[in-house]
């Protein structure tokens, strides 16, 4: 019986090649998209799940409370030491210091800047995390200073072999490190980015503060503390034990710290602590994948019902010869299963073909084996079963229920649900899906353009940030700056900590001399010399710029600082003395116009600008925008002359700002592709409905042509129906899209408005797709000779 079903199904599909091809194409596109989305989501959900007992591993994070709460994935350097010495909650505890853009010298005086940096870790780091050792030893050697472990990839890059035990390299032109172990290459689904590890006692050569047992006075993003709790230990008990730490070790501080344990599994997803992949992005993509499959299934139903007329006589003959409803139903379901099975196989091959494109688009590193696993196989089986059942049930039941006499006469009454034609209802659902995706894509696109083009209050174009490196005394900095200013395409140079808007910030407290208590709010310190304002084009509203000084002796504040201090005029604060981060109080000599000191996700903070010489880590170089390439060449040449022992490294400010929105940009890139697929699938659905309508109205069209109707008038017969469907879909889609878009925009403190033009564009685009989808079929029917339309067998 099953063999007979398959044989008849194959013959039916051969007779209706267009019907089968369109169904297969729609299902292939939707299922391939769903497979890629599933692989993308699975990849991110798998982050760091390969560590043994990963549910017992936590990162110590900090919440800082002033007027508002800020979040840091770091903790004071001394916290890990105290936690390990005073409590026995943990099986293991480790501190990790990440030095970004570290320079190493190796081999025959070769130098390399590691963008992913290096990590200083305790031996317990390799006991908590399962990064397998290929050769050598980290358990004992990492107790000693100057020991290093590298990955296979890094060993091959530096020395051309993995047999590197005993080899040495120099870090930051400062100290030697001896390789004592080689690790297997790190998987791509881990938080760990650096491929060079140094023993923690070595960190004193980088920054002695990180090994100071009293280092409680601040938090830096370079320091991370991990703990692996003993089985049965409640994280809440550890958090309770850490509650007294701020009062005990940071007495008198207005920056109230609270320390929490963040599960390892949440690190990748929590945007408060700079998790790179918010869960809402995964949910959004998952819903889009579901929408695409639903849309393809709706296509199937529409195209199947469009073919019903062609099969009425077949059904009548079968029923007259004794076929039961169940047999007819299973016959049609078999046809559906053949299409679904073919589509799933082709979609899997399509997903493999487009996997590299997904990697480029989403900036991930999925390998082919990501699509060759049991979970994905189960996913494909579920998709196959649901598509077959959902797409084949209704058409099968529709065909099976016809009375033989009516079927042989070719009569079919319109099936309605609640007074609305079911096929039109399905098209409305497709329109709703398409319009929601289009509106969402346009909203994200508008916000991203706003992020990149909005006036940030400073000049970000053609400004380079060049790390100062090891030659960081006053004379070296002054010499380099002067040499650059002698070049034709260099407009200005400033020595600073970071650009006005940066992911690396220094937040601290302040106290006004005339007030008894420190201020309750948090300020952002922008350490820069007297050239900072001019280099970045920051507008001075009142007072004057700071004067040249090698030490902090005066400061500038921004407008937000005025409002926080309850001043109404810039002149009121000029001459007032402020103490920043416990430093000696200095006068305020100027007020600048507010600028965005972080991303559009955050409000503008109170800002202090001054010559905090101890944190001058970068040069900011403004080059001629018309000749950036020549300016860059001049900087590199000057650097090589004055710093021959250091690799020239740089980055553009506008590139750094774009990095604020990497997650959103990835979502937008994926959404563009999947929205396009949804529109295409929807267009095929329209074609299916038009086919159904043309089949039903062939004689009506013939009669109208005989009575003198033009092609345009006949087109309007169909056009008015589709116009109604589009408008109904828009009425449903608009509030849904508005709600989803508004929820997404809430993550931005500075966001675009949801104006009428976004929704107008969506309905116009949907209308254009509808016109393109139906006009060919309708025009073809409208231009057929009426004699053929009215011919009766």
Automatic annotation (TrEMBL):
Start and end residues of each MacB-like periplasmic core domain: 21-242, 433-624
Entry's Gene Ontology molecular function annotations: transmembrane transporter activity
Membrane topology label: Multi-pass membrane protein
Ranges in coiled-coil conformation: none
Membrane-spanning residues: 21-43, 282-304, 328-356, 376-404, 425-445, 673-694, 714-736, 756-779
Cellular component annotations (GO), alphabetically ordered: plasma membrane
Domain of life: Bacteria
Record localization: Cell membrane
InterPro entries per UniProt: ABC3_permease_C (IPR003838), MacB_PCD (IPR025857), Macrolide_Exporter_MacB (IPR050250)
Major location (coarse): membrane
Residues annotated as domain ABC3 transporter permease C-terminal: 287-402, 673-786
Keyword terms: Cell membrane, Membrane, Transmembrane, Transmembrane helix
PANTHER family referenced in this protein's UniProt entry, alphabetically: ABC-TYPE MACROLIDE FAMILY EXPORT SYSTEM PERMEASE COMPONENT 2 (PTHR30572:SF18), MEMBRANE COMPONENT OF TRANSPORTER-RELATED (PTHR30572)
Protein name: ABC transporter permease
Organism, as annotated: Jiulongibacter sediminis
């Amino acid at each position: 019986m099953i063999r007979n079903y398959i044989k008849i199904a194959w013959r039916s599909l051969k007779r209706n090649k267009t019907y089968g091809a369109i169904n297969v194409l729609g299902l292939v596109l939707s299922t391939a998209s769903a497979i890629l989305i599933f692989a993308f989501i699975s990849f991110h959900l798998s982050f760091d799940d390969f560590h043994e007992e990963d549910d017992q591993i936590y990162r110590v994070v900090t919440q800082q409370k002033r007027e508002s709460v800020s979040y840091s994935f770091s903790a004071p350097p001394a916290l890990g030491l105290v936690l390990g010495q005073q409590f026995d909650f943990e099986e293991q505890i480790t501190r990790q210091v990440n030095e970004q853009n570290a320079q190493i010298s190796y081999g025959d005086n070769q130098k390399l800047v590691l963008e992913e940096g290096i990590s200083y870790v305790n031996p317990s780091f390799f006991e908590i995390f399962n990064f397998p050792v290929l050769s050598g030893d980290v358990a004992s050697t990492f107790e000693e200073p100057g020991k290093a472990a590298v990955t296979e990839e890094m060993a091959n890059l530096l020395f051309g072999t993995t047999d590197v035990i005993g080899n040495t390299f120099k870090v930051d032109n400062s100290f030697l490190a001896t390789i004592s172990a080689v690790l297997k290459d790190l998987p791509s689904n881990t938080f760990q980015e650096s491929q060079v590890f140094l023993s923690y006692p070595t960190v004193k050569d980088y920054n002695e503060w990180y090994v100071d047992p009293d280092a409680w006075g601040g938090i830096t993003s370079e320091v991370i503390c991990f703990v692996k709790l003993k089985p049965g230990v409640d994280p809440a008990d550890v958090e309770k034990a850490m509650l007294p730490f701020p009062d005990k070790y940071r007495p008198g501080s207005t920056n109230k710290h609270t320390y929490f344990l963040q599960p390892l599994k949440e690190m990748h997803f929590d945007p408060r602590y700079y998790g790179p992949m918010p869960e809402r992005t995964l949910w959004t993509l998952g819903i889009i994948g579901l929408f695409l499959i639903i849309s393809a299934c709706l296509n199937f139903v529409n195209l199947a019902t469009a073919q019903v007329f062609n099969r009425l006589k077949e059904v009548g003959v079968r029923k007259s010869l004794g076929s039961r409803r169940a047999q007819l139903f299973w016959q049609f379901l078999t046809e559906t299963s053949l299409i679904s099975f073919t589509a799933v196989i082709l979609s899997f091959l399509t997903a493999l073909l487009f996997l590299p494109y997904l990697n480029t688009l989403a900036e991930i590193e999925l390998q082919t084996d990501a699509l060759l696993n049991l979970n994905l196989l189960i996913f494909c089986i579920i998709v196959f079963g649901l598509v077959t059942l959902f797409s084949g049930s209704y058409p099968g039941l529709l065909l099976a229920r016809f009375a033989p006499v009516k079927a042989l006469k070719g009569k079919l009454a319109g099936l309605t649900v609640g007074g609305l034609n079911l096929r039109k209802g399905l098209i409305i659902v497709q329109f709703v899906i398409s319009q929601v995706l289009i509106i969402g894509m346009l909203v994200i696109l508008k916000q991203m353009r706003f992020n990149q083009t909005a006036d940030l209050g400073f000049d970000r174009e053609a400004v380079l940030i060049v790390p100062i490196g090891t030659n960081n005394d006053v004379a070296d900095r002054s010499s380099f700056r002067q040499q650059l200013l002698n070049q034709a395409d260099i407009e200005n140079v400033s020595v600073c900590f970071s650009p006005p808007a940066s992911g690396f910030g220094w937040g601290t407290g302040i106290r006004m001399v005339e007030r008894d208590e420190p201020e309750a709010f948090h300020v952002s310190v922008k350490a820069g010399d007297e050239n900072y304002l001019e280099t970045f084009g920051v507008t001075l509203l009142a007072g004057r710029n700071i004067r040249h000084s090698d030490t902090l002796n005066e400061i500038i504040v921004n407008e937000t600082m005025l409002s926080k201090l309850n001043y109404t005029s810039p002149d009121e604060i000029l001459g007032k003395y402020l103490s920043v981060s416990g430093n000696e109080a200095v006068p305020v000599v100027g007020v600048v116009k507010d600028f965005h000191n972080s991303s559009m996700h955050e409000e503008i903070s109170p800002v202090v600008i001054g010559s905090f010489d101890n944190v001058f880590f970068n040069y900011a170089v403004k080059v001629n925008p018309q000749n950036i390439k020549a300016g860059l060449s001049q900087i590199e040449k000057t650097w090589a002359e004055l710093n021959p022992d250091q690799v020239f490294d740089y980055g553009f400010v506008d590139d750094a700002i774009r990095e604020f929105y990497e997650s959103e940009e990835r979502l937008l890139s994926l959404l563009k592709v999947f929205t396009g697929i949804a529109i295409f699938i929807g267009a095929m659905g329209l074609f299916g409905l038009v086919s159904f309508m043309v089949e039903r109205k062939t004689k009506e069209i013939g009669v109208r042509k005989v009575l003198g109707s033009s092609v345009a008038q006949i087109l309007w017969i169909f056009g008015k129906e589709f116009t109604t469907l589009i408008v109904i879909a828009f009425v449903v889609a608009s509030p849904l899209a508005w709600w989803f878009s508004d929820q997404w925009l809430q993550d931005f403190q500075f966001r675009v408005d949801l104006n009428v033009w976004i929704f107008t564009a969506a309905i116009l685009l949907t209308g254009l797709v509808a016109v393109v989808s139906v006009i060919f079929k309708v025009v073809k029917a409208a231009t057929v000779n009426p004699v053929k339309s009215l011919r009766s067998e």
